[in-house]
Amino acid sequence: MIHVRNLKKTFGAFTAVDDVSFDVAEGEIFAFLGPNGAGKTTTIKMLTTLLKPTGGAIELDGLNPLTHQNEARKRFGIVFQDPSLDGDLTAWENLEVHGVLYHVPHKLRRRRMEELLKLFELWERRNDQVKKFSGGMKRRLEIARGFLHTPRILFLDEPTLGLDPQSRNQLWSHVKKVNEVERVTVFLTTHYMDEADRVAHRIGVIDHGKLVAQGTPKAIKEQTGTESLEEAFLKLTGSTIRDESADSADQMRQFAKMWSGGRR
Amino acid sequence: MSAIYILWLRELKRYMRSRAQIVASLAQPMLYLLVLGFGLGPVFSRAGYGSYFQFIAPGVIGMSVLFSSIFSGIGLLWDRQFGFLKETLVAPVPRIQIMIGRTLGGSTTAIIQGSLVMLVCVVAGFRPVNLYGIPLALGFMVLIALLFAALGVAIGSSLQDMQGFQLIMNFLVMPIYFLSGAMFPLSNQGKVLTFVTSLDPLSYGIDGMRSVLLSSASFQPAFGIFTDLLVLAVVGSILLVFGAYRFSKIEI
Fold first, then answer.
1. Burial level of A128, CB count in 10 A (0-12/13-18/19+)?
2. CATH code for A2-263?
3. Chain B neighbors of A85, CB-CB under 8 A
C-alpha cells in the first residue's frame, strides 16, 4: 500500500531524512518510531504531499503523490502532530468543513459526525467554539475528524500526545476496529513504546534520518536481545537526549528564513 | 465547487463571530471621515473644491475595503500558525479551489465591511448624487475587494511568520492607501505624485467610486470610469493568477 524507496529530504545543509526505504502492506498497522527530530514528521509530510522530497520515490496505493496529488490525497486521512483545528468554528463546523473537503455525501456525513462525536464524547459540546476546548478535547476532535471519511491509509502522527489513558484506549481500539473491519492501512508514530508494541504489526525505527531497524515488534526485540520494545528502542537509538530544536519544523522555519532572506 | 463554498462560508462565519473586530475596524475609517472630513472642510471649500466631507467619504469606504480584503488574505498566516492551513492543504481538493474559496470569502467580508462604512457615511451626512450610484459603487467595491484579497493571499503565502507583517503594513498597505487619492484630489498634482498615484490600483477604485457617487459638478475624475474598470479588472486578474501561483507553492 505504501512503497518508499531511497527517500531523502534536506533543508539547506541539514539532512532530515536520509535514504529511507520501507513498504507497508495493505491492511497493516505500521509504527514509525524514533527520538525527537529523527525525521518521522518530515517523512509523514512527504508521504502526505505537504513537502516535496529532495530525492527518492513514493507510491501510495500505486500512485505517485507528486504527480497525482489529488488522487493520492483521496486515499489517505491524517491526524497531525500539532493542532490543525479552526478555533473560531464549533466542533460540529470543523467536522463539517472536513467532510465537505473530503467529499463525504451529506447524509453519510451527518451520521458519521454524530457517531464520532458521541464515540469521542464531544457530542454535548458540539456547538461550542473549539477555542474554548481543553487540550485533550481538541485532540479528540482532531482524531474524530481523521476518521470522518474512510481513507484507505490513515496517518497518525503522535495521535495520543496529551490524551488521558481513557481516550488513548478509545483511540487504539477504534484504530484496530477500522483496521480489521474496513481494512484501513495505518501508518503511525508514537513515543509510547507499549502502544506500538500492542497495536502495530510491524515497526520501523528511524534515527538521524536513517532507518535503523525494521520488522515485527517480536523480531526487533529478538534482534536486539531485549525484553521490551522500550529497551530495544533505547539500544537502537542510544540514550542521549535529543535536542528539541533539531525538530524538523524548526529546521524548516530556519531554512525558510534563510531562503526569504536571500531573496530580499 | 462545494469546497469553494465551505471555505467561503468559513470566512464569513469567522467574520460574523468577531463582532469586536468589526466595530474596531469601523473606528479607523470613522476617524478619517469625521476628523479630516470636518476638520479640513473649510480649507477645501475655500480652495474651490466643494465639500471635503462628500469628497473623502468614497475614499474612506475604499480604505475599509482595502484593509479588510488585504488582511483577510494575510489571515493565511494565522491559519499557518494555528495549523488549519495544513488541514486544507492535504484535502483532496485542487489548491486553486482552496485559494478561490478563501479569496471569495475574504472579498465578501471586505464588501460587507465597506457597505457598513458606506452606511455610517450616509448616516453622518454623506449624500450620493443619485441612488443608482450606490449599486455602481458596490460594483467598484467588489473589484477592489477581489484585487486586494488576491494580493493578500499572495503575500500570506510568501510570508512564514508574523514578523514580516509590520513590513507589509508600513511599506505596502499604508502607501497603497495614502497614494490612492483617498484623501486628496489626484488632478492638478505635480508630475512625480501624478505618476506614482497612477501606479496604485486603489487610485482607480476610488476614482471610480467618486465618479458614480459624486455629482460631475463637484468632482473631476482623474482617469475616467472606463479606464478605472479596465485597470481594476486587468490588475485584479493578474493578481488572482499570481496569488493562486504563490498559494500552489506553499510547503509546510
1. middle
2. 3.40.50.300
3. 82-84, 87
CB-closest option in A50, A98, A103 to B89: A50
Map out the domains of chain A as residue ranges: 2-263
B132 vs B134: CA distance, rounded Å: 5
**Could you count the other beta carbons within 10 Å of the beta carbon of residue A35?**
23
ipTM: 0.87
Q: Report the b/e string of A66-81 with b at 16+ CB within 10 A.
A: eebbeebbbbbbbbbb
Q: Out of A52, A74, A87, name the one closest to residue B82 (CB).
A: A87
Beta-bridge mates of residue A60: A2, A63
CB-defined contacts A:B, below 8 A: 84
Residue A93 near chain B (CB below 8 Å): yes
CB B152 within 8 A of CB B74: yes
0.90 surpassed by pTM: no
Q: Tell me phi and psi for residue B42, to 5 degrees.
A: -60, -45
User: A89 to chain B: which residues are within 8 Å by CB?
Assistant: 10, 13-14
Q: What is the pLDDT along chain B (252 residues), one digit of tens a residue?
A: 899 999 999 999 999 998 888 888 899 888 999 999 999 999 988 988 888 999 999 999 999 999 999 998 888 888 888 889 999 998 999 999 999 999 999 999 999 999 999 999 999 989 998 888 999 999 999 999 999 999 999 999 988 877 787 888 889 999 999 999 999 998 888 999 999 999 999 999 999 999 999 988 888 888 999 999 999 999 999 999 999 999 988 887
Which residues, 6+ apart, have CB-to-CB distance to B239 below 8 Å?
A: B147, B150, B151, B154
The answer to whether B160 contacts chain A (CB < 8 Å) is yes
Instruction: Tell me if chain A has a CB within 8 Å of the CB of B249.
Output: no
Contact B90 A83 (CB under 8 A): no
